[in-house]
């Protein structure tokens, strides 16, 4: 009796673990759903990595892909913000200021991406079906206001931008564009 109880417990345990290790069937990708979607507070992106027999490489690939998606979202938001900001100042100097702000924001995007954090980390185990390779699905997030804070800090460091750029107007336009993107 004890042997059969042990055997049933062991089989149940193995079945539970095997179900938890597999991604959902169908087209549903792990690390997706409302809790992993971009919202008014966070840039978020989920991406699968390139399958690899090296677990670390597979995970690194997924993180890089997710951060690349966040960078694209950030750049889209900043481009819209800069276009709206420039249209509110139709001067010749604004063109030069816009170029300097765009260069500065590229630096801020690169700096802030390294501070993004992983909020979902799903690993597919190597099997014959996937050529004995690991595959990761990673979701990363970055606070939207962290990007704005980085831009504000850079503007304060650069004397020309402090005098030529109206940070409060930039922030107002950024907030408007951010709310539009979170409503889509």
Task: Write the SSE topology.
Blueprint: H1 2-21, E1 42-48, H2 55-87, H3 92-113, E2 117-124, E3 135-143, H4 144-157, H5 159-164, H6 167-183
Antiparallel strand pairs: 1-3, 2-3
Helix pairs in contact: 2-3, 2-6, 3-4, 4-6
Widest sheet: strand ordering: 1-3-2
- Mean pLDDT figure: 76
**Shape annotation:** elongated
Q: How far apart lie the N and C ends?
A: 60 Å
Counting helices, strands and paired strands, the structural category is alpha+beta
Low-confidence stretches: 1-25
What is the percent of helical residues? Answer: 55-70%
The DSSP helix count reads 6
Mind telling me the C-alpha Rg? 23 Å
Domain unit count: 1
Task: Describe the model.
It is a single chain. This protein has helices at residues 2-21, 55-87, 92-113, 144-157, 159-164, 167-183; strands spanning 42-48, 117-124, 135-143. The relative contact order is 0.17. It has a three-stranded antiparallel β-sheet with strand order 1-3-2. It has one domain (29-176). The protein is an alpha+beta fold and 184 residues long. It contains six helices and three strands. The radius of gyration is 23 Å and the shape is elongated. Helix content is 61%, strand content 13%.
């Amino acid at each position: 009796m004890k042997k059969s109880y042990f055997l049933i417990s062991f089989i149940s345990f193995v079945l539970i673990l095997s179900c938890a290790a597999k991604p959902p069937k169908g087209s549903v990708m792990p690390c997706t759903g409302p809790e992993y979607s971009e919202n008014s507070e966070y840039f978020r992106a989920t991406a699968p990595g390139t399958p690899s027999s090296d677990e670390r490489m597979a995970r690194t690939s997924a993180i890089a892909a997710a951060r690349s998606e966040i960078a694209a979202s950030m750049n889209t938001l900043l481009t819209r913000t800069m276009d709206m900001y420039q249209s509110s100042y139709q001067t010749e100097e604004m063109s030069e200021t816009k170029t300097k702000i765009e260069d500065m924001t590229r630096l801020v995007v690169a700096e802030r991406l390294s501070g993004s954090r992983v909020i979902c980390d799903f690993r597919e185990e190597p099997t014959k079906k996937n050529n004995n390779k690991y595959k990761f699905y990673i979701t990363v997030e970055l606070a939207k206001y962290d990007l704005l804070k980085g831009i504000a800090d850079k503007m304060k460091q650069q004397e020309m931008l402090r005098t030529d750029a109206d940070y409060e107007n930039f922030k107002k336009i950024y907030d408007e564009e951010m709310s539009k993107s979170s409503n889509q």
